[in-house]
Amino acid sequence: MEQLIEQATSFEVSDKGFYGNFGGAFIPEMLYPNVEELRQNYRQIMADPAFQAEFYALLTDYVGRPTPLFLAKRLSEDIGATIYLKREDLCHTGAHKVNNTIGQILMAQRLGKKRIVAETGAGQHGVATATVCALMGLECIVYMGSIDMERQKPNVDRMRMLGAIVVPATSGSQTLKDATNEAMRHWINNPVDTHYIIGSVVGPHPYPDMVARFQSVISEETRRQLLDKEGRETPDYVVACVGGGSNAAGAFFHYLNEPSVKLVAAEAAGQGIATGHSAATTALGKPGVLHGSRTILMQTDDGQVTEPYSISAGLDYPGIGPLHAHLFESGRGHFHSITDEQAVRAGFKLSKLEGIIPALESAHALAALEELSMTKDDVVVVCLSGRGDKDLSTYTKYLD
Ligand SMILES: *Cc1c(COP(=O)(O)O)cnc(C)c1O
């Protein structure tokens, strides 16, 4: 069955930017020149040996790659499978997001851009963007909802310390959606000298494909490391959490066309799928257009985007990237909705069993392990997307 699906679908983006029924570039006409410039150049720039050399050198010496693939023995014993953790939490800045921002800042330089604009929700992508702008000496403007700026003050302070200008988005609900609108407006008004760094595999083509390729270093390394440790490059399962889907896309990328590898995505059920406080996109969503691409998103019957909720800021997004919508629709990806409580419990479990405090986002992927029926010979790779220091105050509310 899996094999048939595999033959019938391609996981490579089409010329027009589609994965099956999802993707494309649904953008206002004013944005077209910017997006088109990127579309025409990104693959060629990424394939240039000088670009590759610079990208990999920075991943090595600045980000700290390759990240370890760690055999979690006590967790394996507990779950009843052979579990490896891909330690993206050990990347500089504490999560996988910097893999993408390093790639995009080099892309911006090749395109002759002088200024970077980005949007951020909880501030994690804003910090990863401000970091690489400082590294390269490019001006950095980050739009952030004014409510989010209050809720996530430490990340606002980090961005400012790194030299970024943080602009409060004061329209609408004063959160991520409004920050995105205002960042887009900035880009439209400054098309020649500005590059927009998107933080996940979302947005108009070519962003989802470009971001997936920058993050694909995760599965590129995993294959090598697994060969070394297990004598084969392919695990039985790869498990990752999905907000927009960039760490999952990176962890899945070099396994997309290996039907023997089950791809498991953990999305945030929040307080529960049926509670109205959730970000379980595939469980609740329908096809529609969000942030420039056709995908699956949570919406009301008349098409208004629903306000998402999750305990983890990084999964608090009403859609998923178009690649993931296609993985879901085609059956290639297996999606699990994980509640706040399940995630917190899994976060405590990893801390106590392995001495690793995971980000709440990553804890969703760990919780999904409990829902899979595996045997102890099954080899599982979990993408540990980030470290949990930022989530301590949330975790400690559950300490008794
Ligand atoms: C932002 C973030 C996520 C969610 O983003 P994806 O694009 O889905 O990977 C997951 N984990 C961590 C640690 C994050 O910071």
UniProtKB/TrEMBL annotation:
- Domain Tryptophan synthase beta chain-like PALP: from-to ranges: 64-386
In the UniProt record, does the keyword Amino-acid biosynthesis occur? Answer: yes
Presence of keyword Lipid biosynthesis: no
Q: In which pathway does it act?
A: Amino-acid biosynthesis; L-tryptophan biosynthesis; L-tryptophan from chorismate: step 5/5
Q: Which residues carry this modification: N6-(pyridoxal phosphate)lysine?
A: K97
Coiled coil regions in record: none
Needed cofactors, names only, are: pyridoxal 5'-phosphate
Q: Which UniProt keywords apply?
A: Amino-acid biosynthesis, Aromatic amino acid biosynthesis, Lyase, Pyridoxal phosphate, Tryptophan biosynthesis
First-tier enzyme category under EC: lyase
What superkingdom heads the lineage? Bacteria
- What GO cellular component is one of the record's annotations? cytoplasm
- Role, per record: The beta subunit is responsible for the synthesis of L-tryptophan from indole and L-serine.
Q: How does it assemble?
A: Tetramer of two alpha and two beta chains.
Q: Which family does it belong to?
A: Belongs to the TrpB family.
Q: What is this protein called?
A: Tryptophan synthase beta chain
